[in-house]
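Table S4 entry, Cytochrome P450.
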Amino acid sequence: MFEHTGECKTHSMALSTVVVAAAFWSLAIVILGASHVTRTRTHRTADVVKAVLSPRNTEHTAEIRSRVHPHEHFALTPSSAILDPSRHDSFVQDATALIASVSPQQCAGWQRFVKCAEKCTEMFLPSREVDFAAFIQSVTFCIIITGFYGVDPGTLSPIDVAFVTNTLNRHSDSTSRQTPLYPSELDAMRERVCRWVGGERAPQALETILPAYESMWRLTAVTLAYADGNQHMHNAFLDFSENPTQKQFRSFKVKNTRPSVEAIISEVLRLHPPIQRIARKSRHPLWKRLFYPAQEIADIGAVHRSCVYGTRLETFDAMRFHPQHEHPVDMQLLAFGHGGLSCVAREWAPMATALIVAKVVDRVDDVGFVLAGKVFDARMYRNTRIGWDGWVVRKKEREKLVS
């Protein structure tokens, strides 16, 4: 009997050992699997999105990845360099200095930027007809590179500018983001940009130009589409073209019954933020990865269409940004992020984009040149990179004299 009891105990201990070992390896497999599977959580409410966009206690590497993630598919910089804090800090400082040099607070720099906008718009006006999106892309790229780096617009070949913008655009849509630029394409773009910019700033110029170009050409195109056929918006931009000051930018029209240029740009940013969804990549200790997502997504588009921005949220209504509107906006726009990780150009980009729009409106005036396209519908144009088929800028033919 005692021998039988001993055998039972031995069998029980062996079984317990097997169970513990199985539990251990099961947990190890689960943890290992969790470390390799990207888990994503999407946030659509205003307060949570703001918290995601401005996280606390973010390590430097995670902060860098949060900044570069929207454009990392271009692979302009080696991954080892992207995560180098000193390289990243230097890039942010350089970009901030370039923006400050052409901000409205720097009178001479802003006036130079205005002249660049005028010359670049004139440069790309067609002899007969040009695709609207291609026109805006070339004008925007030209203005950014000449404004930031003091390049003479006359030294830029329209064919070379078109090559750069076309290459960037081909790798901006969702289908082509899976593959980086071909080395030959990247080298060809860098060669052109370095030739135009020159000096020690040339090697990093493309990285600085890209995010500004990516956001501003689409914002410019959409704003022009809304202004087309709307006389009040058209007049507001003509006034701003003639007097491109901060006061004019912020002035509401017709005894405060019509929107300011700033309000128009803000409403475009509300309905069509440059980045609809901002991803934040995070790093957690191994044991926490079961409980925290590897990536959190802030759905900017969803928040901008929520009740904190008033009523009739799918309708373009720039007057919602008037402080005395019956349903005024309760929260600052999140189009350029929020908090410490927000875009370095958040203060400058809206007014700079408005200037580009104003100069195009001034020249494409239904007298010498016309903009022809479909009626713009805010509900249909969530992806503002596409949808421009049939939109053209056309030189207006002079009426034949009747003998």
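Residues 2-36 form the longest helix (35 residues).
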